[in-house]
Records
---
Amino acid sequence: MDTTPNTWRLRVELDDSPGALARVTIRLADQDCNVLSLSVIPVPGGVIDELVVRAGPGLLPADLVAAVRAEGGRCVGITAADMRDLVDAPTAALRAAGHAMRDPGAVCDALRAVLAADSVVVLPDDAPDHETSAQSNTARLVTKGGLVVLARRGWSPFTQVELARGQALIDLLSDEGVAMPQSTALLTDDGMAVVLRPGRAGDEEAVAELHSRCSMGTLFNRYHSGMRTVPRRWLHRLLSPPRGTTVVAQCADRVVAMGQLIPMSDPHSAEVSLLVEDGWQGRGVGTGLLAALAGAARADGRLELVGWCLPVETGLLRTAARAGLPTAVRREDGLLRVSITTGRQEIAGPGRRESASRQIASS
């Protein structure tokens, strides 16, 4: 089954000449593309036109970029879009602000929506300087309390207008007394203290070491391949998945588990995956990770988490049951598709958990 997205968001720079945009849209129409929305973003020295396009059958992103270039334009960014991208920017910003004020745990998700960012994290006080280095694809915003919020976006550089919106949202939430998300403390079933926090670029070495300590069976259950160590080129994507969330579990200076949340083409679903070091399995760490990821998904409007398991692997089902999350299972392509409802029920089992904050930042 073809799962390639057919709706795309493009940012285009065109010459300041009459009919330039019309020629681009006509060329896209000739390729059986439907322009669903158009907005103009002011930038220094001109504007950028943003189009949300439903592509014709079999049309790839490279074909859309070529169509723009054929009319003398430059595509400065392209990314998969969904129906939520059809809301104009001021409306989206107002909705995001209202959502964050009603649910402080959704602050990072609100910022991610306003900035159209791949990830938004609140940095800890001891974050290294390279985390806040100035790049066009990295937005560094500062709260009135001095916390640093870092947003990243791989598909297109941030514009000054977007950065101003993001800062205005942070200032508004600060004025209204909405707390920024913080890490979550977890007490395992045997009394060990673990911190759940957003993954960040500085965790690459710790995550590589986590994989090296995991058994072949644990890695096979996670990746469904016979890998022994994770390739170095995967580490950044594991920690900063496009439009996704990564949460790590840390005990002292060691990362002992990690979980990922990746949005699917269905705006109500997200794919979830967990990796827990062998010695930490069965102690409530995976349960805490899954609950945190379900909360992040719920704040983003996702009703379902989807996990893929080997037919003989029941760990995800047991973890969801301990987290109080209802599940449904069906077999697809030789794997089990585990559907987890993000709505939380009363937790089964006596697992002891303490939270230093009821919020966790989306990454």
---
Amino acid sequence: MADQDNLKPNGSAYTLSQISQYLSYVGLDESYHPSSSPVLDLAYLITIFQAQLTSFPYENLSIHYNPVHSILLDPQILFNKLITTPKRGRGGYCMELSIFFSHILRALGFSQIHYSGARNRNRTDGVPQGNYNGYVHLVNIVTLPNTAGPQYVLDIGFGGDGPTFPLPLTEHTIHHNSIGTQEIRYTRDWLPDQRFRDESKGALKHWIYEYRNSPDRDWNSYYAFVPEHEFTELDFENLNVYLSECKRNHQTYTILVIRFLRGEGSQKIGGKVMMVQGEVKQNLGGRTELVKVCKTEEERTEMLKELFGIVLTEEEKEAIRGWASELRGE
């Protein structure tokens, strides 16, 4: 039995023993463990996805409240941060969460899974606009075992406007995104600055993730990716250095935290709470409301604990002093 517990299926970095720890952490019982031979169907994938989404917040605090102000993507370091250390409510930003979740899914038995890099658009007045950036985001793409159905895109680390369930890779299919009236879909098109468009020679259109906050609103195109173009963890190591250490990138001077709240019964996602720098908002199923504007570090760290369940150590709290994102009571 001990030998079985040490297995790392499908190239996962995690053992079956670690999977038991994970399931306990996210509130799922051993019937979801590979040793129980669960059916790896869409219902199973949705349950795992939403348990993950509501257990680990999107947050970039390891850039700010960290003596070395950098992020490491080694899967064992991620497991230790998210699971092994005393429960402090920690999560991570997109590359941390998506790489961690990919290794979890592989160990659970999903063998047909790969990474794809995505190009985001920047927000202006809260709305994505302008050109698509270079690759700054990461999604997982999975095919269910023993099925001829569509691929599913698992975006576990996009934040407040990200999908709250595995999204089938089908064009123009509109889905309700769990909270309020927001709808999401994929379209497929050339990017405005994409010059190679000869499909007979292998040119590929991008799949574009779009959302609108109600059926009477315009669609907003947020990020684009090519699922046939597989990225590796070494690709994301390079991108991670830019995203977490380059002072021109907003991640290094803006604190971002989004926690999805677990619902009750059939309502798996009950709402979300969000922090951008010192501004804290919540959406419990209707409109987004302002909760508090933090002016000092003491106010912000207390709000992280009270509303988001994130507990920082004294060393972490001190590490932000003198950093661009520090709240100085101004």
---
Amino acid sequence: MDAATNATAAFKLLTLNTHKGFNSFNRRFVLHELREAVRAESADVVFLQEVLGSHEAHAVRYPQWPQKSQYEFLADSVWQDFAYGRNAVYTEGHHGNALLSKFPIVRYENHDISIGTHEERGLLHCVLRVPHSEIDVHTVCVHLGLRETHRRQQVQHLCRLISQDIPANAPLFVAGDFNDWWLLANRRLQRCGLREAFVQHRGRLARSFPVRWPLFKLDRIYYRNARISRPRVLSARPWSRLSDHAALTAEVQL
């Protein structure tokens, strides 16, 4: 590809655990403010975790509750395509991972990686048709379990997905909430051929949780067959008031 083509094949990623549209400790419903903050970042592809598909009780309790799903509300008219992977189902509704995209999503599949019945988790695999790119772009939106024994198996599932379902030469971005308190998943994913954006540019993973005093390195942006620049942690206002996790962004060039 020539220089002009490279320039048009550049875009921006953002990943965030939305905490189901509530701030830390569930004190306020902040989905409308969250939508404005995400819009202001002008990301082309947005990875969302813990986003509600529906919740009947909240819809009655909160006057500003949207009439459509949270991911459709966040996408609105800005992100023309979106995909949702329902992971957790309960009496009032369900939640999971979602991807919002300014590029066409040509196909997607949600992979159930739940271990037993303790926690419902999934990997949302989407294939994007990015203009001026010679090959389709693959994305995987991730939310791993809280137990280390579960995460080991879930990372193995992710690595199998990458090796079996994603072409070796395809651009790939894997982002989300890894709940990787002890950094074991990070080492395993590196062995699967992935690089992490903050490690490559700053020498260490980003601190993203809890958002007001980020100490733990739970949220990540991994990639393969692409160039990433300007990784940023969004933990100052307004982001510190919009979730319990900080959002991460990075710029991409294919």
---
Amino acid sequence: MIQIIRVLVSALTILLALSTQVAAAVVGNLYDDQLLVASQSRAALTEGAATALERVFIRVSGKRQVRDNPVVAAALAKPEPFMTQYRYQRSKNAEGIDELELKLSFSPRQVNATLQSAGLPIWSANRPAVLVWLIADTIDGRQFIGADAGNELLSALEAEAQRRGVVVQMPLFDLADSANLSAAELWEMSVDDVREASARYSTPFILMGRMSQFSTGQWIGSWAVLQGSESLRLDSEGMTEAEVLAPPIDYLADMQAATYSVAAGAGSSANTMIHVSGIKDFASYASLVTYLEGLAVIQHANTVWLDQDQLILELVLNDDMEKVRRFLSLDGRLLESTADAQSVLPRPVRGYYQWAGQRL
């Protein structure tokens, strides 16, 4: 009976789950950062800007360490030219103490150019979503984080994900999730049960974990990263939530960046022709080109042929077509299709695609 309930409830809610996937696969404010500063002095601004810029370089490159690179080090020594805007905001923290926060935005063009000059990769904002199932053993018992409980842990998780530019998606914790996965099953780190409960979300990566805090204040965590049929286990510990959450987030960022980032000089910059159908109007055309040229793997998307709702685009690549396919598979906006047997194209193409726009 439980299995029947799981199937029925999942079928009723799968469309809602899929609708959340697209938004979760884009990192917002990739080139922005914020931090606390002691004052609004020029020295504090320069120091804060350097710290924030280093964080941006880490997120955009997908590398944990960038300061040792001489090109990056030179940029961090003089961060002001990279800034497009900054502002201060005063507020009180949880203890009622006044704090001064510096919020900065940096030029994507200059950041990317510096990373290329440094020989470091660029990882664009279109990134795989990670569904996170997390349970914590607290004084209130074992509770799912994000299900109206564990707000401090959830904030720490989101901060760690933001540090590395990892897109985290929490479950809806609705009736379907309650039927599909119990706290006991997650605490036992049952990979099969978590995979089954996660099917409705269709995210390419899953992070499952459990955390406990000892009376000394120390945290320990046990994790499993799932991708398709593969899984990897790791453990972590620390005196703060951030310390115990950092290892799985770092692992995910390293693994994703290795797959989706584009290294300077990695490709042959070869031009590749693709056929795209489903272009209904100029707005669709503009959205398609903007989308493609926003991917780190594509320098330019030039139209070489147009006929009614179909066109041929010449892609100038920073890498190979296989990496393009990896990017396109993330959000389902440009879907692979098959050739029309009745259609004769004026140019040879490497692939056929259907433009779905914002839809999956």
